[in-house]
């Protein structure tokens, strides 16, 4: 079950944290993984970790907000693997300027970055892989989202939440367009993760019913299901992965 042998995957933002966990999990199930990151050293380190464990991976360094760079990176992965990409996991979502703060204090030149990486980044990546998937009659698109897409917060993350809301809507519409071609499209909305910075980690964990933060392994396991043959009837959905902090 959940066997991905012979499949190829691209995971964006896979050089650390949840993205690295996703790449490792897909590789462990047999997929060849193109490990994307904006920082070459991070992509190379995760790729090496996977290959050292007996998996197959290659680093592909590009900025998801640059369509031509995305196309070149996808072409590189296709050449390395000798076939098109079957699985896309768009995980990259945190720009250098996160745009955090009360909206009324944010200058307009800070509004674009979260939208560019989350929404236009997803569009760029889907554009580069969807044609091959539809032609082949099989494909999996998994968008990593956040509870911030549907739950308001006073934490100064309105730009990030708006971007995630937008990309979830994009994925829902894609699911309807691609379903006749055997291609599914789903979002995975994450709760607080173990890479949260600062000394308040334990405080955050106490607010979660499971009394712990999410881990890269938790995220990787959920993505493996969504990317698997067994998930062929799961499309157009947003699944919450948050330790019960928000229920639906």
TrEMBL record:
Belongs to the short-chain dehydrogenases/reductases (SDR) family. It comes from the Bacteria. Pfam families: adh_short_C2. InterPro entries: NAD(P)-bd_dom_sf, SDR, SDR_fam. Its EC number is 1.1.1.100. One of its GO terms (molecular function) is 3-oxoacyl-[acyl-carrier-protein] reductase (NADPH) activity. This is 3-oxoacyl-[acyl-carrier protein] reductase. Keywords: Oxidoreductase. Transmembrane segments: none annotated. Signal peptide: none annotated.
């Amino acid at each position: 079950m959940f066997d991905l042998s012979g499949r190829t995957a691209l995971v964006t933002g896979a050089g650390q944290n949840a993205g690295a966990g996703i790449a490792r999990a897909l590789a462990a199930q047999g997929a060849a993984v193109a490990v994307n990151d904006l920082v070459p050293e991070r992509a190379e380190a995760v790729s090496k970790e996977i290959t050292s464990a007996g998996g197959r991976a290659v680093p592909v360094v590009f900025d998801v907000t640059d369509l031509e760079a995305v196309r070149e990176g996808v072409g590189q992965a296709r050449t390395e693997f000798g076939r098109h990409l079957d699985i896309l996991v768009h995980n990259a979502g945190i720009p250098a300027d996160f745009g955090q703060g009360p909206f009324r204090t944010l200058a307009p030149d800070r509004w674009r970055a979260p939208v560019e990486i989350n929404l236009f980044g997803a569009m760029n990546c889907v554009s580069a892989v969807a044609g091959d998937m539809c032609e082949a009659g099989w494909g999996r698109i998994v968008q990593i989202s956040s509870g911030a897409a549907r739950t308001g917060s006073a934490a100064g993350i309105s730009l990030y939440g708006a971007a995630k809301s937008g990309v979830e809507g994009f994925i829902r519409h894609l699911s309807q367009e691609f379903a006749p071609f055997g291609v599914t499209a789903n979002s995975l909305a994450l709760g607080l993760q173990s890479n949260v910075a600062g000394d308040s980690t334990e405080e955050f964990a106490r607010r979660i019913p499971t009394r712990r933060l999410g881990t890269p392994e938790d995220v990787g396991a959920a993505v493996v299901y969504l990317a698997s043959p067994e998930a062929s009837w799961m499309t157009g959905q947003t699944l919450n992965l948050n330790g019960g902090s928000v229920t639906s």
